[in-house]
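Q: What changes when adenosine monophosphate is included in the input?
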Amino acid sequence: MPFARLGLKAELLRTVTAQNYVTPTPIQSQAIPAVLAGRDVLAGAQTGTGKTAAFALPVLQRLAADAAAGARRGRAPRALVLTPTRELAAQVGDSFVTYGAELTLSCGVIFGGVGIEPQKALLRRGVDILVATPGRLLDHADQRTVDLSAVEILVLDEADRMLDMGFIRDIRKVLRLLPRQRQNLLFSATYSDDIRRLAEDLLVDPAEIEVARRSSAAETVTQHVYRVEKEAKRDLLVHLIDEGNWYQVLVFTRTKHGANRLSEQLQRAGIEAAAIHGNKSQSARTRALAGFKDGALRVLVATDIAARGLDIDRLPHVVNYELPNVPEDYVHRIGRTGRAGESGSALSLVGRDEAGLLKDIERLLKRKVPELPMPAVVRHAPAPAATTEPAAPGGSRHRAAPRPAQGEAPAQPRKRRRSRGRGRRAAGGAT
Ligand code: AMP
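A: The predicted holo structure follows.
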């Protein structure tokens, strides 16, 4: 079904076309008509399914239907979107700005870790759509710098992650500040008992929408594992990046400390890398993400929470340097690649102590993740079982003659990465 059949107005259809979206994703074709009809929605959808547009487009349309919109100054937000992380808040804000480019509605983003004063000024000026992380929103509520009495639509984005992060009390506090009469949209990748309880309290006769279950990894992602001792992981990663001529790889570690250490080790090996995690200042996180997106950084090393909501167009490689403790996080991690129909590769470096975690993941996926033999050049590697030398995916194992990977230009000096110039969202304007 084309976008035009979903009931969206011309201004929104034009911005969708400008994004080169040809057909709605399944979550969009189900959620958009339901939200436009004013219904509450309970949607099971992970990132990468197009869920942001699934709520942003109809929310924009509903707010724009009010002729007074945009004309009022000092206005209180009419739509509130709660997200678990700052990165997701910023991206959702960007999406509202992009999709609403032809409307007169304004969108503001507030999150912690940055100065509160500019946010107070923003809220005084007034916004129609407010995207916020729960903690900072409550700071504003305590200081009476945000007025939530005009909220008509509430969106809980990645509600499961907000609960995982311990935000349930904050969410309930926010709910008490909202008008009783409103439309509620709840997006969650999983349905735990806690999510069901929240949904029961919050939603009235919701349209229930379920697309690709979280346990089903995107089919466009090829997955492999290397069985490798802990001490050899770094050498293997450097080898894969080098020989595969990978220019953009998101690497997951389990801890913030591990992310820092690995990023420093990669830098010492001459590979531009940065770490992104909760202990980094917001400006450092924003800088790292921008560098990674524009090609200045080849490697972004992230923890699960920091990576939540990262939206990087056409990210070709994800590496699990360490497997996550929670199998569902594996699906989330590899969901960073192969988005919106693109192909991608996900490699996991599995130490002896992680065999159990891999089993849990395979049980969730309901299939085995194929194993690749260790490249012989990697130091510390246990002696390879076979003497034949199959190539690693996307690269050759012969150092002397690296070959281009996945249609890339031939290898070039590491220090001089060029920007790939891929399509970006409209910049700025969201805060
Ligand atoms: P999300 O699940 O909201 O994080 O979106 C994942 C990615 O899919 C984003 O890069 C969107 O720009 C992109 N996207 C969203 N809707 C569509 C669509 N209908 N067609 C193609 N790409 C889309």
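Observations recorded in class: The longest strand covers residues 221-227.
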